[in-house]
Amino acid sequence: MDFQIREAISTNMKGHSPTEIRSVVEDAIQRGEEHLLPGLGVFFEKWWNMADDSKKESVLTELSTAFAK
């Protein structure tokens, strides 16, 4: 993923409320367009970098379950 994508998304999302961020995520998922996946990856990367090990383990367990289906 190109660094410019990270920077653009970070700049565009700065100051958004949790409700606004949820709307962006749900819209990207609903559209199902491949070009939106890097943006969701930036969201995950931002979260991952600030999460503690307990939160990371929890989400990894949930992702493992989701991909097992």
Automatic annotation (TrEMBL):
Does the record carry Electron transport as a key word?
no
Question: Which UniProt keywords are listed?
Answer: Sporulation
Main localization of the protein? other
**Superkingdom assignment:** Bacteria
Taken from the record, one Pfam family name reads: SSPI
Q: Which InterPro entries match?
A: SspI (IPR017525)
Name one process (GO BP) from the record.
Answer: asexual sporulation
Q: What does the record note about the induction of this protein?
A: Expressed only in the forespore compartment of sporulating cells.
The answer to whether UniProt assigns keyword Methyltransferase to this entry is no
Cellular location(s): Spore core
Family indicated by similarity = Belongs to the SspI family.
> What is the protein's given name?
Small, acid-soluble spore protein I
What lineage does the source organism belong to? Answer: Bacteria, Bacillati, Bacillota, Bacilli, Bacillales
